[in-house]
Amino acid sequence: MHRLELIGVEKEYGEKTAVHATSLCLEDGVYGLLGENGAGKTTLMRMICGILKPTRGAIRCDRIEIGQMGKIYRGMLGYLPQEFGYYKEFTALRFLRYMAALKAMPEEAAEKRINDLMELTGLESVRKQKLKTFSGGMIRRIGIAQALLNNPEILILDEPTAGLDPNERVRFRNLISSLGKNRIVLLSTHIVSDVDYIADEIMIMKQGRMIRRGTQRQLSDSVGQIVWNCTVSEKDVKDISERYVVSNIKNRENGAELRIISRTKPMPDAYPTDATLEDIYLYLTRKEEEGEV
Amino acid sequence: MKTEKKVKMIFQKANEKMHISEAEKSRTQELLAGQMEDYFAASEISGNSGFRRSKSESGFAAYFRQKIRILCRQIRYMDKRAWTGDLMGNICFAVIPVALRYYGAGTEDMMVFLMLSSSLLGSLSILVLSHLFSGEMGELSCTCYFSARQIAAQQMFGLGAVNLLTLGFLIGFIGGCWKAEFFRIGICTLVPFIVTVCICMGILQFEGLRNRSYPVTAAGVISCAAFLVIASVPPLYCASAIIVWGAVFAVGLAVLVLEIRHLFHTIDKGEILCTDWN
């Protein structure tokens, strides 16, 4: 079991602050990192992987700075970048062998591991095909396979389900859930359902800041009653959508059923309902000018 | 900024007053290193077996052998197209003087060839190096065994070694066959190489330019053209001008060292591989 600590970690690029001072402590389990584009998720993950050096602060693994640990830390790491780079002319097998060589894995162990991962990710039948023939989902799967090659104790996955179809997404969720038992898994995503069921803890980032973290229950308790259902006439839908964050619209015969995210009751006949993680995420990441929420 | 400087100074002054025993410091470092080795050796999940030395191996020689083994495996599976291009270029330039000798080329013709080829080899090697930063596997590679700095250093060493071997051969062959002064042709070969490498390496320092190959290519072409012009004016590289060439070589070398230091500094920050801040 490892303990990953981020202490006042900050990243600046010139005038812009991509990640404001962030302190975290991660132990075994699955952590979901939610945030819109530009929130700072990828920058944070790159700093944890040691690719980017923080402008301020420190990242420690078991109380030792990751920069000092060097290859020992990198040996514990499995990383899937958001923009996953690969050589198009490589076959799946050669690519995984190359990654195993980059990770300095012994050859025999690498071959066995590659065979196991090919089967796990459903790429056994295409092992000798070139990566340029792969679909987006298959590329993502090979990316996940390379991240798992060295049986990492710290797994960092940046938008791992991008391009995966629903079946693949479910398969992936089950895989990650099983992996989280003995390792730190940090996965970032836009897709709330990716982390809804499997994450032990959810972290929400907005404009470079960690605005909320906790279990789904804790997040729900922290925001209070924010979701309301109501039925309105179709002509009122546009006006209401401009005034409130509407997370769902169902058109019915007698009007439209709206799911509104708001701190206060939006209309007299609205009734409260339980917030899902998606509702909480929408509420916490709403734009300031989106009126009463 | 001023507050930060002030805080730094306060800490510096405090550190000066504190006496740190070097002996104790070394003992703690050894203890920590030993504990880390034991800790990771005991780790059941750790797939670090490729990182650990076996008990029978110890010492620098074994450490060096292990590194070479790891490197050889990486070379075996890596994408070798850029390196193959560079090697073919080197071989071509090594073979051309043989053909030129057959066709009766004179000393001045060979000086033109030497300057042009060394400039071209310089730009070619930086072009190969720039692939490291072009994004395909850069980000992923530096989370593996070797850090980004180590990978860049290995590439620079490999490319430099191949180029210098080729240039050494050319200097020796041409100096021997055409009975030219080795020192003069050596300097007139190395200066275009160093200057072109400096110019192309300078391009890599700029974030907006390093991810694309055409700025480095363009810089290489311009440098080659400049040396082609210089080579076509023999008085510019006569014996009396060698001091100037020597000075240019020394300055070029100093600039190259500074550029490499700056490049490593940028690599360490990580921004060289991640230009899409998010």
What does this structure look like?
The complex is a heterodimer of chains A (293) and B (278). Chain A is built from eleven helices and 14 strands. The two termini of chain A are 41 Å apart. Chain A folds into two domains: 4-214, Rossmann fold (3-Layer(aba) Sandwich); 224-284, no CATH class. Chain A has 293 residues and is α/β, with parallel strands linked by helices. Chain A has helices at residues 41-49, 66-69, 71-76, 92-102, 107-120, 136-148, 166-179, 192-196, 216-223, 234-243, 277-284, and strands at residues 4-13, 16-26, 29-35, 56-61, 64-65, 77-80, 154-158, 184-189, 201-206, 209-214, 227-232, 245-252, 255-261, 271-273. The longest helix of chain A has 14 residues, at 107-120. In chain A, helix 4 packs across helix 5 (107-120), helix 5 crosses helix 6 and helix 9 (216-223) packs across helix 11 (277-284). In chain A, 43% of the residues are buried. Chain B is globular, with a radius of gyration of 24 Å. In chain B, helix 4 (81-102) runs antiparallel to helix 5, helix 5 packs antiparallel against helix 7 (148-177) and helix 5 runs antiparallel to helix 10. Chain B has two domains: 2-52, no CATH class; 80-269. Chain B has helices at 2-17, 22-42, 59-77, 81-102, 107-130, 138-141, 148-177, 182-204, 207-210, 213-231, 242-269. Chain B contains eleven helices and no strands. By secondary structure, chain B is an all-alpha fold. The chains are: A alpha/beta (293), B mainly alpha (278).
